[in-house]
Design goal:
- There is one protein chain.
- With about 280 residues, the chain is of the alpha/beta class.
- About 40% of the residues lie in helices and about 15% in strands.
- It has 10 helices and 10 strands.
- Strands 2-1-3-10-9-4-5-8-6-7 form a 10-stranded mixed sheet, sandwiched between helices.
- A hairpin with a 5-residue loop joins β9 and β10.
- α1 crosses α10 and α6 crosses α7.
- It is globular.
- The protein starts with a strand and ends with a helix.
Length: about 280
């Protein structure tokens, strides 16, 4: 029986209750065992502190060790506060980068998927002002390859992937920026040479997600975090899953945060956690 690891996240957040609800839901696949890592008593619901942050960090480190050293098949991570983690020595922008480092992923990427949209991110946890400098042909090609591989693993034989422009109107032929012609279009050309998927674009960012939501594309590549995650969370918030691509073993998580204000009040919706566990099982 394959073992799925589940980190509790920050015990002062909603992680403990949505994990308990998911495990009791009757909606998880058979043939798997689930191991929860973390100390629920290390935090008071709604009152994050140093102790709860240290507990969340300890759980992440232990899950990474188990993925490296045991037959554990995948990990599902509960929601954490990046600010709280960094205050106790976490040296990464987010959990995506942490697991890529700990598991030695040569290339990695962040993708979110829900019932309506699947979105890969060319840049992840970066200041918006830095995105134009960080956006390269190489990073777009990398997330394109990883996204195509993810879709194929899920049974999409001929993926259709729309690539967003960076600027309004996809640059309007250089009137609002040149990244579309100098970076994004060359990356699309390289991606189409791989034969992994049909990559099109650069598409106008404010319109392409409507087409994808209507089923005309299997995924969208967004150039930066909020460009892709605002439409996805608008449409799929309750059931979307965050996936770290490129790891030797799957890592998924809910698409939401710690929700400290409602922690411990019985208001948290476990749907995204249930979806994250189900997808980890599928990928494993």
């Amino acid at each position: 029986m394959s073992e799925i690891l589940i980190t509790l996240g920050d015990p002062a957040g909603i992680g403990p209750e949505i994990i308990a609800a998911a495990l009791a839901s009757g909606k998880l696949p058979e043939g798997f065992s689930f191991r929860v890592i973390g100390d629920r008593l290390a935090g008071v619901p709604g009152k994050p502190d140093e102790k709860s942050a240290e507990s969340a960090l300890d759980a992440l480190r232990e899950s990474a060790r188990l993925l490296r050293e045991t037959d554990a098949a995948a990990v599902v991570t509960g929601p954490v506060s990046k600010e709280a983690l960094q205050s106790v020595g976490f040296a990464f922008p987010g959990q995506t980068e942490f697991f890529a480092h700990e598991l030695g992923a040569a290339q990695h990427g962040m993708l979110l998927t829900g019932p309506t949209l699947t979105v890969g991110l060319a840049t992840i946890h970066e200041a918006l002002a830095d995105v134009p400098q960080l956006l390269t042909v190489e990073c777009i090609v990398s997330i394109g390859r990883l996204t195509a591989d993810f879709l194929r693993k899920r049974g999409v034989a001929e993926p259709r992937i729309a690539v967003c422009g960076l600027n309004p109107h996809a640059g309007e032929n250089g009137a609002f920026g040149k990244e579309e012609s100098t970076v994004i279009f060359p990356a699309i050309q390289i991606l189409n040479e791989t034969g992994l998927a049909d990559f099109t674009g650069p598409h106008v960012p404010d319109a392409i997600f409507r087409d994808a939501a209507q089923g005309k594309y299997d995924a969208v590549l967004a150039m930066y975090h909020d460009q892709g995650l605002i439409p996805l969370k608008l449409l799929d918030f309750d059931e979307a899953v965050n996936v770290t691509l490129g790891l030797p073993k799957p890592r998924t998580s809910p698409d939401h945060g710690t929700a400290y204000p409602i922690a411990g009040k019985g208001l948290a919706n476990p749907s995204s956690m249930i979806a994250a566990i189900c997808l980890a099982c599928e990928l494993a």
